[in-house]
User: Which sequence fits this backbone?
């Protein structure tokens, strides 16, 4: 009888252990599943979720990865832009499209496809007017009208601006958006197909090959490449260039993704040509506590954020050359205080401060 009671007690104990272990396993699985849930974004302003934009998580640049940003101006033009999108999708790549406002209505479906792929839609003014050749009120209208269009029609906030013709000199400080230029100009518009100036197919192909060779010979980590998605010539060239860049080891990302990967803030009124490449160790290793001085490339202000992330809300702007007391740090971010606000700043813009 005593042996039977002992046997029952052992079996009961084993069943309890199995039950507890199983419950823990279920809880862990549910937590992992929940963390992967994606929110469907309502676009098009029609009260229903028509597409779900691809949201790529912020990435820190691995030492072996080469990031570049392809950018296309003056579109959309459905017949050519869609071909470029197909080439990007086939090669698991994305690009940034600087759209002209008066072309948006004729390319709504094209823009929706680009957003759904994870491409970035940016501002190239409403009617391609040079920003330093018009009045303040017209300049604001040219910019704001496009931002409102894209927000209202697609539910997307526009973050970046490219000045038509690159003409921003003298007015950049008046523009409340980051200005994106380029480090490689393909000059593709010079080789567009013109019926009044016919050329042989072999000559056309040679001009295309020359541009592709120029890009491949000069491209480097962090470059921004300029093209125009309204030309058949550019669509043809992109179908060759995109896979060639990928096969050469480059990852084609949006402008915003590239700057995010290099821990660089894009600030309103500042002009950007390419990413300034910093050693990976400098970006990823937490800095020691101590005094640091704010050192930005342009002399502009540094954002103090509520969280150690670029998506953390901006609490206040800290002027260049301000000395800060860093109390703790994580990968790429440092905790500090300024004018009564406690938050985080990017360590990419801090240098150790020493007196004398």
Assistant:
């Amino acid at each position: 009888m005593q042996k039977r009671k002992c046997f029952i007690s052992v079996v009961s104990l084993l069943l309890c252990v199995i039950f507890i272990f199983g419950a823990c396993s279920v809880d862990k699985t549910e937590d992992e599943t929940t963390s992967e849930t994606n929110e469907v974004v309502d676009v098009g302003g029609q009260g229903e979720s028509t597409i779900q934009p691809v949201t790529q998580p912020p990435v820190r640049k691995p030492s072996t990865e080469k990031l570049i940003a392809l950018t296309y101006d003056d579109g959309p033009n459905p017949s050519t832009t869609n071909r470029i999108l197909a080439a990007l999708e086939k090669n698991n790549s994305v690009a940034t499209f600087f759209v002209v406002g008066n072309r948006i209505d004729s390319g709504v479906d094209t823009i929706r496809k680009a957003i759904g792929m994870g491409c970035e839609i940016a501002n190239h003014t409403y009617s391609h007017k040079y920003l330093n050749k018009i009045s303040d009120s017209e300049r604001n209208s040219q910019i704001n009208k496009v931002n409102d269009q894209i927000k209202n029609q697609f539910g997307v906030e526009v973050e970046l601006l490219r000045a038509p013709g690159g003409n921003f000199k003298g007015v950049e400080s008046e523009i409340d958006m980051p200005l994106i230029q380029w480090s490689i100009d393909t000059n593709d518009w010079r080789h567009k197909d013109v019926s009044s100036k016919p050329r042989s197919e072999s000559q056309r192909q040679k001009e295309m090959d020359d541009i592709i060779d120029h890009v491949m010979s000069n491209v480097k980590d962090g470059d921004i490449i300029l093209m125009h998605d309204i030309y058949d010539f550019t669509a043809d060239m992109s179908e060759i260039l995109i896979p060639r860049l990928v096969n050469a080891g480059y990852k084609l990302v949006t402008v915003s993704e590239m700057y995010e990967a290099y821990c660089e803030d894009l600030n309103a009124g500042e002009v950007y040509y390419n990413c300034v490449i910093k050693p990976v160790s400098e970006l990823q290793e937490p800095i020691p506590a101590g005094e640091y001085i704010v050192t930005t490339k342009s002399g502009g202000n540094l954002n103090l954020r509520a969280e150690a992330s670029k998506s953390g809300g901006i609490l206040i702007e800290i002027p260049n050359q301000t000395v800060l007391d860093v109390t703790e740090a994580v990968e790429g971010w440092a905790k500090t205080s300024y004018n009564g606000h406690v938050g985080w700043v990017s360590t990419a813009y801090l240098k150790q401060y020493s007196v004398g």
The chain has two domains: 66-193+200-261, 285-352. The first helix runs from residue 2 to 34. Residues 173 and 269 are 5 Å apart (CA to CA).
